Amino acid sequence: MDWVERVTEVRRWSRGGERAPHKPLLLLYALGHYQRFGDAPMFYSEVEKHLAGLLREFGPPRRTSPSYPFHYLTSDGLWEVQTADGDGSPGPGVGDLRARAARGRLTGELAAALRDDPRLLPQLCRAILDVNFEPSLHDDICAAAGIDLESVEAAGAVIPRRRDRAFREQIMVAYEYRCAFCGYDGWLNGTAVGLDAAHVRWWAFDGPDDITNGICLCALHHKLFDKGALGIAEDRRVTVSVHYVGRGPAARHQVHALAGRPISTPQRAFPDVDDQHIAWHAREVFRSPARAA
């Protein structure tokens, strides 16, 4: 059985390009739990606050309940739920899951596959991350989910990426190796350092490796852009989330001061970022409302 294919094809609720990484985040949490504790069951009452934290930090900027993936992931053949009296999942209701001491675990078949092949767990984690989140968030998600993926590199079991390698070079040239938000343009020994080609609409959510979906950002502003602390308004100005808090002068200068600043445009030979991709990021990633300029 191709478990990598199974985890990347988990059914996700979808409507108009909205992000719903609830099941993938629960799967990552469950894989991290398996890596640390083996096949021990996970009580909903214990998982709830951890999964809620993952959803709050890496999910869409909308309220949601960890009870939904805890129940609905059972339909994908990777996760099973049982109550204290031996019944299956009582449904997505928080009260029922708590009152009936619902506990979840990876299915016996998947757990057996993980025991038989130590390389499978990091392969599954990498695959889930690749098809659901931008690369700048992968390390943070693994840390929050309690996953140690050092064995991936050691075993050479990294899933080949399917992203267009030419995308980065196109974006760098279009923006002349300069952060479109702050203007940073550092080089070391003839090579640009600290600059990334950022997707506006995430690649994992049908964002194309195309110049109209990319922007050059420094490493700091790329991370904040993917976390929803920074965004782009319809008038092509930088937005800063009111939820971002920076008390020191460095944070105020490097982040707060960006509010309302026009973003740099690419060279005339290249098209600008598409309005639809900007609107997607504002709806699905940016933590609104925005600070006043």
From TrEMBL:
Q: Which GO terms describe its molecular function?
A: endonuclease activity
Task: Decide whether keyword Transmembrane helix is in the record.
Answer: no
> What positions does the domain ScoMcrA-like DNA sulfur-binding occupy?
3-148
**Which Pfam families would you find in this protein's record?**
DNA-SBD_ScoMcrA (PF26340), HNH_2 (PF13391)
* Species of provenance: Actinomadura coerulea
Its name, as the record gives it, is: Putative restriction endonuclease
The HNH nuclease domain covers which part of the protein?
179-232
Which UniProt keywords are given for this protein, alphabetically ordered? Endonuclease, Hydrolase, Nuclease
Superkingdom of the source?
Bacteria
Answer yes or no on keyword Chaperone: no
